[in-house]
Amino acid sequence: MNSFSIVIPLYNKVNYFQQCLESVLCQTHQDFEIIVINDGSTDGSENILEKFEDSRIKLISQDNQGASSARNAGIAIAKYEWIALLDADDYWYPNHLEELQNTKVKCPKASVICTNYEIVLEKTYLKQASFAVDIQSKPDYVEDYFEASLIDPLAWTSALAFTTPIFKEVGGFDTQIKSGQDIDLIVRFGLQAKMAFNPKVTMRYHRITENNLSDRTGLRDKLAYINKHTAEEKRNASLKKYMDINRFSLGIQAKMKGDKALFQQLRQDIDVSSLNFKQRMLFSASGFMLRKLKSIQRKLVQKNIYKSPFK
């Protein structure tokens, strides 16, 4: 019960992967295996493994099939019950697995656990995750995942761990979804699993890296995870509001890129009461104004000032 199987999907992350692996090997909690699924990298990312001599590291190679397929493949061969996910361009602080283990001990009924995290928006700006509910000072069970995740998601992929039974129960990663597969999985966890959250920051997420999946897929690809749970939204008001926030985010991107049809489709599906005042104002703004505001936001971030429509 103290062991973790760490699953890392790898696709063209040569500038980040070594630091990622080093962050795992430097953990204060050392009871783990590392499963790297090389998903058809073409930049030699997998060769970085030659620098490490550790019997706990396993490399599996496959043709490029996407992160969902890679993660499913890694989890399928994991020898431990608890799975910890890590993306190859993210970074764990040395306390990550220790705090996951502490969360398991303090919240023994949880089958899905996560820790707090930081987001690198620009090279000079590190954003702290913000949540829509008050966070306890110690690990605790999550009452309503969707309500808590209206600003930043309470669970981030590389800060997440879960048991193999709950992963199988919810159906694993959906390989038909090209973008937002992790959000889709966590939505199913939020509906079916007992979740727990640890407020200690234990990992760093890079918003912008080379070969970022969210940047390589089209906006319409994201409709798959957004529209997948519409039936359940009718029965779950918190999920409806959470998914409307996701629709808002995609709608803003669609308007900025001139996809009027996609924007109209998303606007029709949104309950406007799900949005705060700033979000409603932005939703009614022109594409030109949104692009201008986005440019201003980036300039402010460069000055270590971050303004968000989500709070």
Attribute tags:
311 residues; alpha/beta; Spore Coat Polysaccharide Biosynthesis Protein SpsA, Chain A; 10 strands
Question: Could you name the ranges where pLDDT drops below 50 across 5 or more consecutive residues?
Answer: none
Order of helices and strands: EHEEHEEHEEEHEHHEHHHHHHH
State the distance separating the first and last CA atoms.
Answer: 38 Å
Let me know the CATH homologous superfamily of the largest domain.
Spore Coat Polysaccharide Biosynthesis Protein SpsA, Chain A
CATH class (first level) name of the largest domain: Alpha Beta
Strand content: 15-25%
| SS class | alpha/beta
Description:
The chain folds into two domains: 210 residues, Spore Coat Polysaccharide Biosynthesis Protein SpsA, Chain A (Alpha-Beta Complex), CATH 3.90.550; 84 residues, no CATH class. It is 39% helix and 19% strand. It contains 13 helices and ten strands. Strands 1, 2, 3, 4, 5, 6, 7, 8, 9 and 10 form a ten-stranded mixed sheet that branches. A hairpin with a 2-residue loop joins β6 and β7. It holds the Pfam family Glycos_transf_2. Keywords: Transferase. This is Glycosyltransferase family 2 protein. GO terms for molecular function: transferase activity.
